[in-house]
């Protein structure tokens, strides 16, 4: 556990540049069934394996435990070390009054509940476990998902409509602006007072979709209630743009050309804060929010990092047994459990749109 902790701190510490941050967010978008901490651990250890020549590509593709690979007819190549991650340890608890938190008692192994008791499993701790990338295995070919190639300037079919519906569900009205001049030089603006989201109409479809995902990130992360007094604008912009990157990447839309310099410039404005802690907190919020958004959108063509053909919902041998849907719910829960936002009235104190309580990018 100490070694895992050290590895995690090292991995987080490397995320100080916009390029590294974008790479990890893009990787996390394809591995949504893993926690952000485990995503960092896998990414860092795979990079180390690549530098030592043990794997052919710098970024992992599919990752699973040894027994999970065996169920797909694949076996770990001799001499290939696994990537150490955190695995949940669960125990069964029983209660005759489930609504009373104090009534739950832990069941011993093999112990049966008493008549009338409700039984639930709960994570009590974590332990080290190992996973391997598909490039570290051999055997039956992995069934590949179809990956439609996007034409230049086009957005994935249905993505705009899905994001627009998510904006409407949160009580915001979506509208177009003729150009950046109408938005004070921004591509999109969210007005938290008027509950409106406005996106430039003179951009390609792909750029409009990413802009809408960015503004939806602001709304879903409650940036109107959290800032500027309760939230540094630099953190808010990094969070929103990272959400947009994860959503777009999940649908095969590459936004790194814009995201890398954008995230790099805004992250450098956060003063008097430890970059490691800022990135860690931002990563968890971004991942949880992006998962909640993706869960309401059409199925992304890239999947969630689980090897095609493997049913993780029924598998009991791997280190992380939750199905992608359950993992998404856990990610959303993390956002819900964050400290309550600062509810003070907001005013514009950072460079940007002149209208109070509005944010643009």
From TrEMBL:
Q: Where is this region: Disordered?
A: 96-117, 295-361
Q: Which residues form a coiled coil?
A: none
Q: Which domain of life is it from?
A: Bacteria
| Domain N-terminal: from-to ranges | 4-111
Family matches, as InterPro entries: ArdC_N
List the biased-composition ranges (Basic and acidic residues): 102-117, 327-345
Q: Name one GO molecular function term.
A: single-stranded DNA binding
- Segments crossing the lipid bilayer: none
Q: What is this protein called?
A: Serine/arginine repetitive matrix protein 2
């Amino acid at each position: 556990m100490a070694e895992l902790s050290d590895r995690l701190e090292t991995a987080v510490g490397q995320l100080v540049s916009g390029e590294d941050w974008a790479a990890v967010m893009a990787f996390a978008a394809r591995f949504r069934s893993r926690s952000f901490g485990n995503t960092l651990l896998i990414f860092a250890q795979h990079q180390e394996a690549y530098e030592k020549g043990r794997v052919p590509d710098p970024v992992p593709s599919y990752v699973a435990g040894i027994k999970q690979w065996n169920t797909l007819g694949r076996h770990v190549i001799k001499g290939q070390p696994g990537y150490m991650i955190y695995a949940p340890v669960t125990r069964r608890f029983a209660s005759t009054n489930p609504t009373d938190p104090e009534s739950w008692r832990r069941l011993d192994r093999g112990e049966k509940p008493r008549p009338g008791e409700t039984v639930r499993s709960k994570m009590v701790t974590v332990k080290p476990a190992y996973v391997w990338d598909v490039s570290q295995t051999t055997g039956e070919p992995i069934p590949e998902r179809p990956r439609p190639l996007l034409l230049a300037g086009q957005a994935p079919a249905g993505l705009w409509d899905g994001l627009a519906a998510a904006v409407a569900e949160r009580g915001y009205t979506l509208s177009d602006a003729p150009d950046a001049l109408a938005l004070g030089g921004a591509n999109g603006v969210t007005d938290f007072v008027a509950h409106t989201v406005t996106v430039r109409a003179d951009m390609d479809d792909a750029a409009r979709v990413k802009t809408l995902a960015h503004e939806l990130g602001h709304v879903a992360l409650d940036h109107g209630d959290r800032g500027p007094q309760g939230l540094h604008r630099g953190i808010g912009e990094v969070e929103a743009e990272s959400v947009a990157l994860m959503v777009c990447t999940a649908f095969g839309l590459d936004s790194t050309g814009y995201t890398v310099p954008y995230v790099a410039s805004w992250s450098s404005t956060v003063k008097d804060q430890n970059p490691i802690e800022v990135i860690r907190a931002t990563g968890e919020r971004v991942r949880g929010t992006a998962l909640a958004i993706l869960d309401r959108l059409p199925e992304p063509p890239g999947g969630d990092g689980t090897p095609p053909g493997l049913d993780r919902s029924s598998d009991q041998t791997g280190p992380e047994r939750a199905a992608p849907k359950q993992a998404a719910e856990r990610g959303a829960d993390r956002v819900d459990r964050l400290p309550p936002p600062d509810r003070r009235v907001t005013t514009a104190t950072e460079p940007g749109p002149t209208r109070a309580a509005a944010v643009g990018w």
